[in-house]
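Priority: medium. Attachment 1 of 2:
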């Protein structure tokens, strides 16, 4: 009894800590208790027996909800892959009372499903190791066609190899690779892409080449949401080594960026500096999973474009406000829905076309690789909930079912790009895109004369999905729009299409007042791979630039890969230009960067340039012979350095100590006529070095120092001897 009471008290204490936000009061829904903000309500819209342990869900254009429903199995994943006990169910609200009342098993015998996407008449489901395209051609609620749309070919013990997929506004399908199993991707005209790291990948729905969007050392990227301008935000676990309350969180995925923990899985991937790319929001040990952006005002105008994330471990859904910050964002995170129920585990969140949010609670069954879910409770079932504002007006015909779709002309469809109903806008984009070139004229009218940024932006996203230069020309025209988000969408579309004709437009954006537009332009320029862009990029690198914008400029130089043009930046007096050229040449395949080109920057008065040069040099131990003169000059001037700079020099010399030239510098520094500071620095460098066999001249010099009158030097000499002595040499 006392133990039970202690558990209750502990749960209440944790609950109070987790719910620092002020709420209106408790709401009891069935067996669950929730705190929701003042003015909001929560209701169960689907539970057992319609769904037992829902994981993820997505709507089709008719308002039917496709839910991945777990069997509750925690068997080893190899066994689950063989037995395939999970399923996809289709839920319908036949009486239109706002709650689902009919279930059809859309697909049974599924491997553990970790993502659902309804697109163009099919349901795409991530079921590691593959993404399946499930199609119900006769609309009887059962998918008779199963096509393996993507073969991941790896399945690790936590089954976190694959999450998604997610439809980008550009019409590409995105998904996440987790775990650290090696995967190989063919690249036309290039060597295969081989990786163990985490990634966001993308490719077109019809198939084709697969592109890596970001690279990471995090364990488990999960869900991806998109800003109005097409920027990618994703949830992930272990984005840093746990410590100080940090572990999981949100990241703004910049094209080509390397994120997460710095360890061996990201070795060999192209980087744009020593520091990994920044984190958007630290959420602690939260196990964030589902993520969505609210694209309407049904929660209130203040919530439009906010993100909502489900935190599995913390039993809550949080609201994330994004605010432009340089070329990226900063975030403000607030609790939105919180439950003290230890078995409430939200796994997905999506916007409801009829208004509000759909929140998926998977219940208490899951424990695979989850340190906070060690009690298997398959009998504790989950449910699907709707959260909405109490006073929000009900959306009339939220799906646009009373509208003509098949017979509507393109001009009528184009007016729907700014409809207040999110489902109508989405369907208008897809329908217009399916009309292909026939829709371009109507879309051009919107681009040039659209009433709202929303309409113009959606016209750009529609054009992005239509092949051909006519569509490309209208996208280029949209890049001159007065609204920054429309320009951002146009620049992104130009980039994914690799539109070479847009290069002059993009180069102009490198001088834009918008850091976001400048960064997106640099990204697009790199994808076009035109050598004539190198000089403008180097000019843009002069800054001032934040880390994210600097990354995109340097990564563009890397993708272009023009050694000769890039190397001209090394002669500049501008530190930012020199830094960009150095890093790009270091990362370009066969970039030809030499020690002689790098050494002058090692002693630069500009901290950022100096650090970049050292980051390059430290990974090139073969440059040791070239660095002898530099280190000789630096150690001879050690009396002029403060303690921090002395320690830094000692560490750097130690790293290159195996080189003969550096060994000679250290031997000279131990001579009797050298200053005390020089001797101590040399001794510390030797002690920290990784020299496998100490040269005889070191042994001789160290032995002589054992008779030195300075006790500190004697102790340092002993430390050095012990560090470099082979086991057979010790007596």
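Attachment 2 of 2:
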């Amino acid at each position: 009894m006392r133990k039970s009471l202690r558990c209750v008290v502990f749960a209440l204490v944790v609950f109070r800590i987790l719910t620092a936000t002020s709420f209106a009061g408790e709401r009891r829904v069935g067996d669950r208790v929730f705190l929701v903000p003042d003015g909001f309500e929560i209701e169960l819209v689907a539970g057992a027996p319609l769904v037992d342990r829902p994981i993820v869900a997505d709507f089709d254009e008719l308002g039917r909800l496709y839910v991945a429903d777990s069997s509750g199995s925690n068997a080893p994943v190899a066994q689950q892959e063989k037995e395939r006990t999970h399923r996809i169910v289709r839920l319908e609200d036949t009486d239109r009372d706002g709650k689902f009342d009919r279930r059809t098993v859309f697909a049974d015998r599924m491997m553990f499903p970790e993502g659902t996407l309804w697109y163009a008449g099919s349901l795409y489901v991530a079921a590691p190791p593959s993404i399946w395209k499930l199609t119900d051609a006769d609309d009887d609620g059962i998918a008779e066609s199963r096509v393996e749309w993507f073969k991941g070919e790896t399945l690790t013990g936590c089954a976190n190899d694959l999450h998604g997929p997610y439809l980008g506004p550009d019409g590409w399908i995105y998904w996440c690779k987790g775990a650290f199993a090696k995967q190989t991707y063919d690249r036309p005209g290039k060597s295969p892409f081989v990786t163990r790291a985490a990634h966001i990948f993308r490719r077109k729905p019809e198939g084709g080449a697969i592109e890596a969007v970001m690279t990471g050392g995090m364990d488990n990227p999960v869900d991806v949401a998109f800003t109005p301008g097409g920027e990618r935000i994703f949830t992930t676990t272990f984005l840093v080594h746990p410590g100080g309350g940090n572990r999981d969180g949100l990241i703004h995925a910049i094209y080509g960026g390397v994120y997460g923990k710095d360890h061996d899985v990201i070795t060999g991937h192209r980087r744009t500096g020593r520091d990994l790319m920044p984190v958007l929001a630290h959420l602690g040990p939260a196990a964030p999973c589902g993520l969505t952006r609210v694209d309407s005002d049904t929660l209130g105008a203040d919530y439009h474009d906010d993100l909502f994330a489900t935190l599995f471990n913390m039993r809550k859904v949080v609201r994330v406000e994004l605010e432009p910050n340089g070329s990226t964002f900063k975030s403000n995170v607030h609790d939105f829905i919180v439950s003290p129920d230890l078995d409430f585990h939200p796994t997905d969140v999506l916007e409801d076309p009829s208004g509000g949010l759909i929140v998926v609670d998977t219940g208490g069954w899951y424990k695979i690789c989850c340190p906070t879910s060690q009690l298997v409770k398959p009998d504790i079932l989950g449910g699907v909930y709707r959260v909405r504002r109490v006073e929000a007006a009900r959306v009339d015909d939220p799906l646009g079912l009373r509208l003509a779709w098949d017979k509507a002309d393109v001009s009528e469809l184009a007016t729907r790009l700014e409809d207040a109903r999110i489902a109508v806008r989405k369907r208008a984009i897809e329908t217009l895109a399916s009309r292909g070139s026939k829709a371009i004229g109507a879309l051009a009218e919107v681009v040039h004369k659209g009433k709202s940024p929303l309409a113009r932006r959606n016209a750009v996203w529609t054009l992005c999905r239509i092949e051909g230069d006519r569509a490309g020309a209208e996208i280029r025209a949209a890049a001159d729009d007065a609204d920054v988000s429309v320009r951002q969408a146009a620049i992104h579309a130009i980039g994914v299409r690799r539109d070479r004709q847009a290069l002059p437009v993009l180069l102009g954006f490198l001088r834009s007042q918008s850091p976001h537009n400048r960064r997106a332009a640099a990204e697009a320029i790199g994808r076009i791979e035109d050598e004539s862009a190198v000089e403008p990029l180097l000019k843009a690198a002069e800054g001032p630039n934040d880390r994210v914008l600097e990354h995109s400029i340097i990564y563009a130089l890397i993708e272009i890969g023009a050694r000769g043009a890039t190397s001209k930046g090394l002669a500049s007096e501008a530190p930012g230009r020199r830094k960009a050229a150095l890093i790009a040449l270091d990362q370009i395949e066969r970039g030809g960067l030499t020690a002689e080109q790098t050494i002058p920057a090692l002693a630069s008065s500009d901290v950022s340039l100096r650090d970049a040069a050292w980051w390059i040099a430290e990974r090139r131990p073969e440059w040791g012979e070239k660095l002898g003169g530099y280190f000789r000059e630096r150690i001879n001037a050690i009396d002029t350095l403060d303690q921090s700079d002395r320690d830094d020099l000692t560490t750097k010399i130690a790293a290159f100590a195996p080189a003969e030239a550096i060994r000679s510098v250290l031997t000279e520094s131990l001579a009797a006529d050298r200053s005390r500071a020089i001797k101590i620095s040399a001794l510390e460098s030797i002690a920290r070095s990784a020299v496998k066999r100490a040269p005889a001249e070191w042994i001789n010099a160290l032995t002589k120092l054992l008779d030195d009158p300075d006790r500190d030097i004697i102790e340092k000499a002993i430390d050095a001897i012990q560090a470099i002595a082979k086991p057979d040499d010790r007596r």
